[in-house]
Write a structure and sequence with these properties.
Order of helices and strands: HHHHHHHHHH
Largest sheet: none
Structural class: mainly alpha
Helix content: over 70%
């Protein structure tokens, strides 16, 4: 009983830390759209173009844009602080989602949908990375800090797993376009909420920070990125099962079929 009580007590101490619960909530809200938009974009672009390959490209572009956006936001946060970056990036995320649903259907071609999906991914606010920084500063003691990082990892994974479920519920009630807009605005709201917390506004970037070489001198990280990119691109290589309704007739065979 004592062994199970100690970790639980560490989690309770994390939640009791002043100024930490609202940023944690904003982090969960910011991670949820990552799980929502991958599936939502795939189905939305598939509905627009009738091609599962195009939907896979959009989902892959979203993932790659998200990876690039997190890197860029990290640099900006190191220079200007969290609050000055997360709020405008979140607003841009909401704008990209509106663009995808309102303007993309009026433009022919899959290129604009793929590009807009990448733009949407690049503007997902870096609330999870920012939360890790706050935990390091707000939590005192190795045990409490370890519990805080463990809680952050669990909450992040729960949000990712809940994203497709939320998208499925929106698909039934409103369609894939609604899931894209909801995900974009949820990410934007999370960025705004996180940036308004006292902990985020009080955090100041270090005057000097160590500059690392990233993937250029890290072969393991480069391999991991390639594997992840391949996983995201896999739906784009799969043959599309979609066929227009009139193609199901045995007497009609056209170039479109």
């Amino acid at each position: 009983m004592l062994e199970g009580h100690v970790p639980m007590q560490g989690h309770l101490n994390v939640l009791r830390t002043p100024g930490l619960r609202v940023p944690l909530l904003a982090m969960v809200l910011g991670a949820l759209p990552i799980g929502m938009l991958g599936l939502g974009l795939l189905l939305y672009v598939h509905r627009l173009t009738g091609s599962l390959a195009d939907g896979g490209l959009a989902a892959a572009a979203f993932g790659l844009g998200n990876a690039a956006g997190m890197t860029a936001q990290g640099r900006l946060i190191d220079s200007y602080g969290q609050a000055k970056v997360l709020a405008p990036v979140g607003a841009a995320c909401a704008a990209w989602s509106l663009l995808l649903v309102a303007a993309v259907p009026a433009v022919s071609g899959r290129g604009i949908a793929v590009a807009a999906s990448a733009g949407l991914g690049s503007c997902i606010p870096a609330t999870t990375g920012s939360m890790r920084v706050l935990l390091a500063e707000l939590l005192r003691g190795a045990e409490v800090r370890t519990a805080g990082y463990a809680m952050l990892a669990v909450l992040f994974q729960l949000a990712l797993l809940s994203g497709p479920l939320a998208t499925s519920l929106l698909l039934v009630s409103a369609g894939p376009g609604a899931s894209v807009v909801t995900g974009g605005f949820l990410a934007g709201g999370a960025g705004a909420l996180f940036s308004m917390t006292r902990a985020s506004r009080s955090w100041k970037p270090a005057r000097k920070f160590v500059r690392h070489d990233g993937v250029r001198k890290n072969a393991g990280l480069a391999v991991l990125l390639l594997i992840t990119a391949g996983t995201g691109l896999r739906p784009a290589w799969s043959p599309s099962p979609y066929r227009p309704p009139h193609c199901h007739s045995e007497t009609r065979r056209t170039a479109e079929c």
